[in-house]
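ZP: hey, is the uracil complex queued? I don't see it on the tracker
AM: it wasn't, my bad. submitting now with these inputs:
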Amino acid sequence: MSDFKNVCVVNHPLCCHNLSIIRNKETSAEVFRNAIRRITYLLFYKATEELELEAIKIETPLEVCEGKTLKRNKEIIIAPILRAGLIFSDVANEIMPFATVRHIGMYRDEDTLTPVWYYNKIPVEVEHPEDKIILILDPMLATGNSAIDSIKLFTNKKVPQENIRFISLISAPEGLRKVQDAFPNVKIITASIDNCLNEQGYIRPGLGDAGDRIFNTVEN
Ligand code: URA
Protein backbone atom coordinates (compact mmCIF):
# COMPACT_ATOMS: atom_id res chain seq x y z
CA MET A 1 0.00 0.00 0.00
CA SER A 2 1.04 3.67 -0.38
CA ASP A 3 0.29 6.81 1.63
CA PHE A 4 -3.04 6.76 -0.16
CA LYS A 5 -5.53 4.43 1.48
CA ASN A 6 -6.45 1.65 -0.96
CA VAL A 7 -3.76 2.51 -3.53
CA CYS A 8 -1.29 -0.28 -4.09
CA VAL A 9 1.97 0.61 -5.88
CA VAL A 10 3.54 -2.44 -7.46
CA ASN A 11 7.18 -1.46 -7.26
CA HIS A 12 8.58 -4.85 -8.12
CA PRO A 13 12.08 -4.56 -9.66
CA LEU A 14 10.77 -5.80 -13.02
CA CYS A 15 8.06 -3.13 -12.98
CA CYS A 16 10.63 -0.42 -12.26
CA HIS A 17 12.92 -1.73 -15.00
CA ASN A 18 10.16 -1.81 -17.62
CA LEU A 19 8.79 1.56 -16.53
CA SER A 20 12.15 3.11 -17.30
CA ILE A 21 11.95 1.63 -20.79
CA ILE A 22 8.53 3.10 -21.51
CA ARG A 23 9.32 6.51 -20.04
CA ASN A 24 12.21 6.96 -22.47
CA LYS A 25 11.03 9.09 -25.40
CA GLU A 26 13.37 7.22 -27.76
CA THR A 27 11.63 3.87 -27.13
CA SER A 28 9.91 2.54 -30.27
CA ALA A 29 6.20 1.63 -30.27
CA GLU A 30 7.03 -2.06 -30.50
CA VAL A 31 9.40 -2.04 -27.52
CA PHE A 32 6.96 0.23 -25.64
CA ARG A 33 4.08 -2.23 -26.09
CA ASN A 34 6.15 -5.25 -25.08
CA ALA A 35 7.42 -3.55 -21.92
CA ILE A 36 3.85 -2.61 -20.94
CA ARG A 37 2.74 -6.21 -21.46
CA ARG A 38 5.46 -7.39 -19.06
CA ILE A 39 4.31 -4.86 -16.44
CA THR A 40 0.68 -5.91 -16.96
CA TYR A 41 1.38 -9.42 -15.66
CA LEU A 42 2.79 -7.96 -12.46
CA LEU A 43 -0.11 -5.53 -12.00
CA PHE A 44 -2.60 -8.35 -12.48
CA TYR A 45 -0.78 -10.55 -10.00
CA LYS A 46 -1.69 -7.91 -7.42
CA ALA A 47 -5.12 -7.01 -8.78
CA THR A 48 -6.34 -10.61 -8.67
CA GLU A 49 -4.75 -11.86 -5.46
CA GLU A 50 -8.03 -11.75 -3.55
CA LEU A 51 -9.98 -13.95 -5.97
CA GLU A 52 -11.61 -16.79 -4.06
CA LEU A 53 -10.64 -20.42 -4.47
CA GLU A 54 -12.41 -23.67 -3.74
CA ALA A 55 -11.06 -27.13 -3.13
CA ILE A 56 -11.30 -29.80 -5.85
CA LYS A 57 -10.05 -33.32 -6.30
CA ILE A 58 -7.79 -33.96 -9.27
CA GLU A 59 -6.58 -37.23 -10.66
CA THR A 60 -2.98 -36.88 -11.80
CA PRO A 61 -1.43 -39.72 -13.84
CA LEU A 62 -0.14 -41.04 -10.48
CA GLU A 63 -2.88 -40.49 -7.89
CA VAL A 64 -5.80 -38.43 -6.67
CA CYS A 65 -4.83 -35.21 -4.89
CA GLU A 66 -6.42 -32.06 -3.53
CA GLY A 67 -6.27 -29.00 -5.74
CA LYS A 68 -7.73 -25.52 -5.81
CA THR A 69 -9.70 -23.80 -8.51
CA LEU A 70 -11.22 -20.36 -8.85
CA LYS A 71 -14.72 -20.15 -7.40
CA ARG A 72 -17.08 -19.44 -10.28
CA ASN A 73 -19.63 -17.68 -8.07
CA LYS A 74 -18.46 -14.27 -9.30
CA GLU A 75 -18.27 -12.98 -12.87
CA ILE A 76 -15.00 -11.20 -13.64
CA ILE A 77 -15.47 -8.23 -15.93
CA ILE A 78 -12.46 -6.67 -17.64
CA ALA A 79 -13.33 -3.10 -18.66
CA PRO A 80 -10.62 -1.42 -20.76
CA ILE A 81 -11.03 2.30 -21.40
CA LEU A 82 -10.43 2.83 -25.13
CA ARG A 83 -8.05 3.20 -26.62
CA ALA A 84 -4.98 2.95 -24.38
CA GLY A 85 -6.63 0.41 -22.04
CA LEU A 86 -6.52 -2.17 -24.84
CA ILE A 87 -2.85 -2.77 -24.11
CA PHE A 88 -3.85 -4.23 -20.73
CA SER A 89 -6.88 -6.20 -21.90
CA ASP A 90 -4.94 -8.56 -24.20
CA VAL A 91 -2.87 -9.81 -21.27
CA ALA A 92 -5.85 -9.76 -18.88
CA ASN A 93 -7.82 -11.90 -21.29
CA GLU A 94 -4.94 -14.28 -21.74
CA ILE A 95 -4.56 -14.94 -18.01
CA MET A 96 -8.35 -14.95 -17.36
CA PRO A 97 -9.86 -16.45 -20.52
CA PHE A 98 -13.17 -16.99 -18.69
CA ALA A 99 -13.62 -13.26 -17.99
CA THR A 100 -16.11 -11.00 -19.79
CA VAL A 101 -14.66 -7.98 -21.62
CA ARG A 102 -16.78 -4.82 -21.63
CA HIS A 103 -15.15 -1.92 -23.46
CA ILE A 104 -15.62 1.67 -22.38
CA GLY A 105 -15.10 4.33 -25.05
CA MET A 106 -14.01 7.66 -23.66
CA TYR A 107 -11.62 10.34 -24.81
CA ARG A 108 -10.39 13.42 -23.06
CA ASP A 109 -11.55 16.84 -24.22
CA GLU A 110 -8.18 18.59 -24.34
CA ASP A 111 -9.70 22.00 -23.42
CA THR A 112 -11.80 21.02 -20.44
CA LEU A 113 -9.83 17.84 -19.52
CA THR A 114 -13.18 16.12 -19.00
CA PRO A 115 -14.06 12.71 -20.44
CA VAL A 116 -16.31 12.49 -23.50
CA TRP A 117 -18.25 9.24 -24.01
CA TYR A 118 -18.54 7.59 -27.38
CA TYR A 119 -19.05 3.91 -26.57
CA ASN A 120 -20.10 1.82 -23.62
CA LYS A 121 -20.66 -1.93 -23.60
CA ILE A 122 -22.00 -2.05 -20.04
CA PRO A 123 -25.49 -3.60 -19.95
CA VAL A 124 -28.39 -1.29 -19.09
CA GLU A 125 -29.20 -3.57 -16.17
CA VAL A 126 -26.49 -5.47 -14.32
CA GLU A 127 -28.00 -8.62 -12.80
CA HIS A 128 -26.63 -9.65 -9.40
CA PRO A 129 -24.26 -6.67 -9.18
CA GLU A 130 -22.84 -7.97 -5.90
CA ASP A 131 -21.51 -11.01 -7.79
CA LYS A 132 -19.38 -9.02 -10.24
CA ILE A 133 -15.67 -8.28 -9.92
CA ILE A 134 -14.76 -5.32 -12.11
CA LEU A 135 -11.25 -4.59 -13.34
CA ILE A 136 -11.18 -1.17 -15.04
CA LEU A 137 -8.07 -0.67 -17.15
CA ASP A 138 -6.46 2.62 -18.13
CA PRO A 139 -2.67 3.07 -18.29
CA MET A 140 -2.72 6.73 -17.20
CA LEU A 141 -4.68 7.89 -14.15
CA ALA A 142 -4.16 11.63 -14.63
CA THR A 143 -6.91 14.07 -13.57
CA GLY A 144 -9.03 11.18 -12.29
CA ASN A 145 -12.06 12.37 -14.31
CA SER A 146 -12.30 9.34 -16.60
CA ALA A 147 -11.56 7.01 -13.71
CA ILE A 148 -14.47 8.50 -11.75
CA ASP A 149 -16.84 8.35 -14.72
CA SER A 150 -15.94 4.75 -15.50
CA ILE A 151 -16.31 3.66 -11.86
CA LYS A 152 -19.71 5.40 -11.73
CA LEU A 153 -20.87 3.28 -14.65
CA PHE A 154 -20.73 0.30 -12.32
CA THR A 155 -21.60 1.83 -8.95
CA ASN A 156 -24.72 3.38 -10.56
CA LYS A 157 -25.72 -0.20 -11.32
CA LYS A 158 -25.21 -1.17 -7.68
CA VAL A 159 -21.86 -2.91 -8.02
CA PRO A 160 -20.24 -2.44 -4.57
CA GLN A 161 -17.09 -0.29 -4.57
CA GLU A 162 -15.23 -3.13 -2.84
CA ASN A 163 -15.71 -5.27 -5.98
CA ILE A 164 -14.06 -2.71 -8.26
CA ARG A 165 -10.34 -2.41 -9.02
CA PHE A 166 -8.82 0.34 -11.16
CA ILE A 167 -5.55 -0.66 -12.81
CA SER A 168 -3.10 1.91 -14.16
CA LEU A 169 0.55 2.07 -15.10
CA ILE A 170 1.23 5.59 -13.90
CA SER A 171 -0.89 7.76 -11.64
CA ALA A 172 -0.83 11.42 -10.65
CA PRO A 173 -1.35 12.28 -6.98
CA GLU A 174 -4.04 14.83 -7.92
CA GLY A 175 -6.07 12.15 -9.74
CA LEU A 176 -5.61 9.56 -7.01
CA ARG A 177 -6.88 11.99 -4.40
CA LYS A 178 -9.94 12.81 -6.47
CA VAL A 179 -10.81 9.17 -7.13
CA GLN A 180 -10.27 8.18 -3.51
CA ASP A 181 -12.43 11.06 -2.28
CA ALA A 182 -15.23 9.97 -4.60
CA PHE A 183 -14.79 6.20 -4.14
CA PRO A 184 -12.79 5.44 -0.99
CA ASN A 185 -13.39 1.69 -1.24
CA VAL A 186 -12.28 1.18 -4.84
CA LYS A 187 -8.80 -0.31 -4.85
CA ILE A 188 -6.30 1.25 -7.27
CA ILE A 189 -3.33 -0.77 -8.47
CA THR A 190 -0.57 1.17 -10.19
CA ALA A 191 3.12 0.80 -11.00
CA SER A 192 4.02 4.37 -10.10
CA ILE A 193 2.74 7.52 -8.43
CA ASP A 194 4.46 10.33 -10.31
CA ASN A 195 5.06 13.94 -9.24
CA CYS A 196 2.15 15.99 -10.56
CA LEU A 197 0.10 17.04 -13.57
CA ASN A 198 1.16 19.78 -15.96
CA GLU A 199 -1.24 22.47 -17.21
CA GLN A 200 -2.41 20.30 -20.07
CA GLY A 201 -3.29 17.48 -17.67
CA TYR A 202 -0.30 15.31 -18.59
CA ILE A 203 1.46 13.37 -15.87
CA ARG A 204 5.00 14.52 -14.99
CA PRO A 205 7.44 12.97 -15.62
CA GLY A 206 5.04 10.37 -17.07
CA LEU A 207 5.59 9.01 -20.56
CA GLY A 208 3.61 11.37 -22.78
CA ASP A 209 0.43 10.26 -24.49
CA ALA A 210 0.09 6.55 -23.80
CA GLY A 211 -2.39 5.90 -26.63
CA ASP A 212 -0.18 7.63 -29.20
CA ARG A 213 2.90 5.75 -28.07
CA ILE A 214 1.12 2.36 -28.02
CA PHE A 215 -0.45 2.84 -31.45
CA ASN A 216 2.49 4.72 -33.01
CA THR A 217 0.49 7.87 -33.74
CA VAL A 218 2.87 10.35 -32.10
CA GLU A 219 3.00 13.46 -34.33
CA ASN A 220 6.28 15.33 -34.19
N1 URA B 1 -3.12 10.50 -20.74
C1 URA B 1 -1.90 10.15 -21.23
O1 URA B 1 -1.82 9.36 -22.18
N2 URA B 1 -0.81 10.67 -20.66
C2 URA B 1 -0.85 11.51 -19.62
O2 URA B 1 0.20 11.93 -19.12
C3 URA B 1 -2.12 11.87 -19.12
C4 URA B 1 -3.24 11.36 -19.71
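AM: back. The helical segments are 13-23, 29-47, 86-95, 145-155, 173-182, 210-214.
ZP: great, adding it to the tracker
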